Amino acid sequence: MGLTVESRECIETPEGGVVEELVVNIGPSHPSTHGVCRVIAHLDGEIVTRAEPVIGYLHRGIEKMAENRTYLQVVPLTDRLDYVGSMYANWAYCRAVERLAGIRVPERAEYLRVVVCELQRIASHMMSIGSAAADSGAATMFIYAFDQRERIIELFEALCGARLTYNYVRPGGVSFDLPDGWTETALDFCRTHREALNEMDRLYFGNVITRGRLKGVGVLSADDAVAWGASGPVARGSGVNWDLRKHDTYSVYPRFDFDVPTGSNGDCYDRTRVRLYECYESCRIVEQALAQMEPGPIRTSGMPRLLAPRPGDAYDHIESARGSLGVYLVSDGSVRPYRMKVRSPAFCNLALLPMLAEGHMLSDLVVILGSLDPVFGEVDR
């Protein structure tokens, strides 16, 4: 996992004793630290006394680059933010552009956005659950989860030709309509995916070793989750019943019947298992969306290639796989954004690591980091 010893220090305890503190550097090493994350861990034996996440190794200046590109040219940059959930990053940015320019999106395009983003949620959660399982020694679960993710990637490849950075959601709509047979394949996936989730639940979350490694580790209270600005499964694992699709609803989500899974203990087990339950709900949403969707245009007619919104600003946010993903745009009336700022849920959730890791063992530190599900393209930007 890219672990190196930084230093040894003798520290006097409040009781007058002296302990030797070991400072260990973990990472940046992909994929062991869930991306290019570096954690400086201060240890008293095997116990973490302090953990300092060091970020910035994947910083590419996307927000600044947006100032030198047209509104449409920025879309491929957003793919590189949350590269495990690129559909979400596309959608959050496009909603901000549409709010800024007063663009009305056709109904079919809204349904298509919901379908692809709920499938993207499942794919992202399979990545998260699989890597969390690998962190705790369950390599078989990692393979099971990635098999399910691969089926979604194949659906996306058939839809838009890409497997990771999709550039599918565009200002005013989407780039392609559904190809022949795609709907039937997606519905078949939802049916078989539920069976796979049942098996994964028994295989991993029902395992006594998993429970021993995850339960009671990295406990986050509901009050702390709210105070630190946590969102998504990290907050819902602590019992915070907040989901933008329900509580600050957008697009066509009010037309769907689905539940918001929450945990009760706020530990690594609840945070990870909430993601599994969310996959069931995403299947429900996809099935309802495909059933309700009517034929029609997939993008706004008459959209200019060089969009120039009138001067002003706009903010919009969506519920990504990691939580509340927001984009703030400022227009000066030109064809390029004057400013762009991304509100990253992965960044906010990662800030919890020092508090959650303190007092746990070094082996627990890796599990806690994985339970926060950070994606460092979005953290660093």
Could you explain the architecture of this structure?
- With about 375 residues, the protein is an alpha+beta fold.
- It has two domains: about 1-60 and about 360-380, no CATH class; about 60-345, Cytochrome-c3 Hydrogenase, chain B (Orthogonal Bundle).
- Helices cover about 45% and strands about 15% of the residues.
- The protein is built from 15 helices and nine strands.
- It has helices spanning about 60-65, 75-80, 85-100, 105-135, 140-160, 180-205, 210-215, 220-225, 235, 245, 270-290, 345-350, 355, 360-370, 375-380; strands spanning about 5-10, 20-25, 40-45, 45-55, 170, 175, 310-320, 325-330, 340-345.
- The strands form three sheets. A four-stranded antiparallel sheet has the order 1-2-3-4.
- A hairpin with a 4-residue loop joins strand 7 (about 310-320) and strand 8 (about 325-330).
- Helix 4 (about 105-135) packs antiparallel against helix 5, helix 4 (about 105-135) runs antiparallel to helix 14 and helix 5 runs antiparallel to helix 6.
- The chain is globular.
Biggest sheet overview: 4 strands, antiparallel
Tell me, what is the CATH class of the largest domain? Mainly Alpha
CATH architecture descriptor text of the largest domain: Orthogonal Bundle
Note the overall shape. globular
Tell me the distance between the termini: 24 Å
**C-alpha Rg, in Å?**
21 Å
Oligomer: single chain
The CATH homologous superfamily of the largest domain is termed Cytochrome-c3 Hydrogenase, chain B
SS-based class: alpha+beta
Widest sheet, order of strands: 1-2-3-4
| Helix content range | 40-55%
CATH topology description of the largest domain: Cytochrome-c3 Hydrogenase, chain B
| Percent range for β-strand residues | 15-25%
What is the tally of helical segments?
15
Number of separate domains? 2
